[in-house]
Amino acid sequence: MAASPDTLPKIGAPATRALRDAGYTALRELAGVPRAELAALHGVGPKALDIIQRALAEHGWSLG
User: How large is the average pLDDT for residues 46-59?
Assistant: First the structure.
């Protein structure tokens, strides 16, 4: 089942908080965002970035 483009993927509480604090509330909003920009957020690590990238790829999107 594909991740919903209207919610954030299940990536863990610290990463979810970091994304929400940065204004991201949906997977679709992460399409095209530079990986380094997300990696700079406290709580967003390599595992969360990989999950996000896989979820984006399900919709034909990717990180910038």
Answer: 97
